[in-house]
Amino acid sequence: MVNVCEVLGTEYPIIQGAMARIAECNLAAAVSNGGGLGIIAAGGESADWLREQIKKTREMTDKPFGVNIMLLAPNVDELIDVVCEEKVPVVTTGAGNPGKYIARMKECGIKVVPVIANVALALRVERAGADAVVAEGTEAGGHIGETATMALVPQIVDAVKIPVLAAGGIADGRGIAAAYMLGAKGVQVGTRFLVANECIVAPGYKNAILKAKDSSTVATGRSTGHPVRVIKNKLAREILALEKKNEDVEKINELCTGTLAAAVRDGDADHGNIMSGQIAGMVKKEQPAAEIIEEMFKEVEEIYEDRNHICRTGRSV
């Protein structure tokens, strides 16, 4: 099995989650400088914006970084053109099958790592030439699938021969160690990086994460076919109320219009769409991105050193 760090060109086997309107050059460069793979999220953005972000990231780091492309974006072909022309080291994809784009990206020297939520898609992207996959469980923030990380990861690992990174519900060394026990060779982490010093979200957004408890998130939008995990607030309750009434998708979408920007830019904790994973209740402090990475992997080492205490005396793992 190929080492994930060799695939990504990183010191640590960790990818920063692609958070739309949030993951831009400052956070991406900080994560890459810290030994992980920083990601620029191109979802909802223009090709010109993406090209400028790539340029700025290269000015801030000489380490590998990546771009995430949402395949449902209306300008997806333009975004693919940009990453190919700029020869971005790594591209992650979401919201669909990137199969028709993979060969072109690989011809440009790009490592392709789709984010998937089921075995069927994992097999399809592997056949199309993906270098690795991120198996993302429903514990994750933002757009989610239905299967939990604990159940999803080992099934993906058993199905494919390429490296698997786990995502969803991972915020510290315990989560990383657990992912490895499930067969993953790396992780993708989003929510914890929301409170990185270099993350551009408004203070109100960060405070919502830092104040969160174990039960503070909810999945909205199930009735639309596109569930999204967010922090419970007035907006989330309004969306759920509309869904309970079986209101039209158009009415729900109208209510949600502009709410992500309200959260990210204005820090609106009541009417902003504060996307977050279920592990928000474990996130307790702001830190530099590099410190977050170092702390998590130091915890992994401590857990690994303690592995022989799993079994009874005289047995080892």
Residue windows where pLDDT falls under 50 for at least 5 positions: none
Give the overall pLDDT as a whole number: 91
Structural class: alpha/beta
Anisotropy-based shape: globular
Please summarize the sheet with the most strands: 8 strands, parallel
SSE ordering:
HEHEHEHEHEHEEHEHEHEEHHHH
Radius of gyration: 19 Å
Strand order of the largest sheet: 1-9-8-6-5-4-3-2
Protein name: Probable nitronate monooxygenase
Keywords: Flavoprotein, FMN, Oxidoreductase
Pfam family, one: NMO
Organism: Anaerovorax odorimutans
Helix and strand arrangement:
Layout: H1 4-8, E1 14-16, H2 25-33, E2 38-41, H3 47-60, E3 65-70, H4 76-86, E4 90-94, H5 99-107, E5 111-116, H6 119-128, E6 133-136, E7 142-143, H7 149-159, E8 164-167, H8 173-181, E9 186-189, H9 203-210, E10 217-220, E11 228-231, H10 234-244, H11 249-256, H12 259-266, H13 289-305
Give a structural overview.
The chain has 317 residues and is of the alpha/beta class. The protein contains 13 helices and eleven strands. The protein has helices at 4-8, 25-33, 47-60, 76-86, 99-107, 119-128, 149-159, 173-181, 203-210, 234-244, 249-256, 259-266, 289-305; strands at residues 14-16, 38-41, 65-70, 90-94, 111-116, 133-136, 142-143, 164-167, 186-189, 217-220, 228-231. It has an eight-stranded parallel sheet. Strands 7-11-10 form a three-stranded antiparallel sheet, covered by helices on one side. β4 (90-94), α5 and β5 (111-116) form a beta-alpha-beta unit. α2 (25-33) runs parallel beside α3 (47-60) and α3 (47-60) packs parallel to α4. The longest helix has 17 residues, at 289-305. The radius of gyration is 19 Å and the shape is globular.
